[in-house]
Write a structure and sequence with these properties.
Blueprint: H1 40-56, H2 93-99, H3 106-109, H4 120-131, E1 139-144, H5 152-166, E2 170-173, H6 190-201, E3 204-212, E4 215-216, H7 218-225, E5 241-247, H8 255-266, E6 270-271, E7 276-278, H9 298-317, H10 321-324, H11 328-355
Parallel strand pairs: 1-2, 1-3, 3-5, 5-6, 5-7
Antiparallel strand pairs: 3-4
Helix pairs in contact: 4-9, 5-9
């Protein structure tokens, strides 16, 4: 059939403000086809294609027709180099010494790459929604999953913490060294209690694990296993925001972040859409003699994206913390318990009256 000579599958589309119909061309000459040069079946296919594109308004492969108009936020030069980090005078010495090992000497901090990042939209949001309203800073708990001397998940956790700290967050990094193996008896261990209290204190988490044997490490999973879904009426993770990242020794993979995302859902947390996966992590940081800092790359840029996004989502969601934790099933459970308690009380009172004990 002559229609076989028509390159129907290779449509050329013009993307612009006006809808452009598909232009069909001959597979050898490349010249546009008209309905007079093809078979009846070919004419039918051409007409059907054009009619379909006109009717649904989606005459482009990427469906730009359906895109929502977006606003490009302008960079505010007033915030270039600005930092809302907690100063040494404002900070609690015990907290600063125990939970902020990522802080740099003051002389180095001003020239650091984190200080040079353009973060004006997030900084303005923090200023208007938290600092000017004199609200508590965002409280972020950072967990990592390796105890090696040169742990790349710890180094990445420190870089993430520096970004969050500049954005005005109260950042606390938990050291998993000394955390016992999960069992049924050591829940009173000081490291377990410390971890649980930090989770209750937090508004959001950052989880960073190495990928080992195709998944997250036991060191990291053990930390989550020690955090209960509920302790009485308190849920240590419910409603918190979560950012996730992983480091790999080999090529880029997403096994660990996929597992972290599942864990976050199970712990009733809101995991941000973005995520960071750093391949060949041993090539992504400077030597220890040069501070073990992350080198410039798209991987570093993605980490910045994730931390900026975490701050924005946490600011948006924190005022509605109780609302997001409200569930029909739990309300129903409380109602049934209340009805049962009232019924038991009525029964006991009736029994007492009948026996004449009152």
């Amino acid at each position: 059939m002559r229609v076989l000579g028509t390159k129907l599958a290779s449509h050329s589309f013009e993307i612009g403000h006006r809808l452009s119909l598909p232009r069909l061309s001959h597979h050898r000459t490349g010249k546009p086809l008209s309905t007079s040069t093809v078979s009846p079946l070919g004419r039918h296919l051409i007409q059907h294609t054009r009619t379909h594109a006109t009717m649904n308004g989606h005459g482009d492969l990427s469906n730009f027709h359906a895109m929502r108009p977006s606003l490009e936020l302008a960079v505010d030069p007033a915030y270039i180099g600005a930092s809302f980090g907690i100063t040494a005078d404002e900070d609690e010495p015990a907290v600063r010494g125990r939970y902020r090992p990522f802080l740099l000497p003051e002389n180095d901090a001003a020239d650091d790459w984190v200080a040079q990042l353009e973060l004006s939209t997030a900084l303005k949001l923090v200023e208007s929604e938290i600092l000017e309203k004199k609200l508590d800073r965002l409280r972020i708990l950072v967990l990592y999953g390796s105890l090696r001397d040169r742990s790349y998940s710890r180094l990445l956790a420190y870089e993430a913490s520096r970004i969050l700290f500049r954005l005005g967050c109260d950042v606390r990094v938990y050291d998993p060294a000394g955390l016992p193996q999960k069992d049924d008896v050591q829940h009173i261990h000081p490291k377990v209690q410390e971890l649980r209290e930090l989770s209750k204190w937090s508004d959001g988490h950052v989880w960073i694990s190495p990928e080992q044997h195709g998944n997250l490490t036991g060191i990291f999973k053990q930390q989550i296993d020690w955090i209960p879904l509920s302790t009485g009426s308190v849920r240590p993770t419910q409603g918190r925001t979560l950012a996730i990242a992983q480091v790999s020794g080999g090529s880029q993979s997403f096994n660990a972040v996929n597992s972290l995302r599942i864990l976050g859902r199970w712990m009733r947390m809101f995991t941000i859409p973005n995520q960071s996966s750093v391949p060949q992590a041993y090539t992504q940081f400077t030597p220890e003699s040069e501070g073990s800092r992350m080198i410039p790359s798209s991987n570093r840029g993605r980490l910045v994206d994730c931390m900026e996004e975490l701050v924005k989502y946490t600011i948006a969601m924190r005022p509605h913390f109780d609302l997001f934790g409200d569930r029909f099933s739990e309300r129903e459970e409380r109602r049934l318990k209340q009805e049962k308690a009232e019924a038991d009380q009525t029964t006991a009172l009736s029994g007492s009256l009948a026996s004449g004990s009152l």
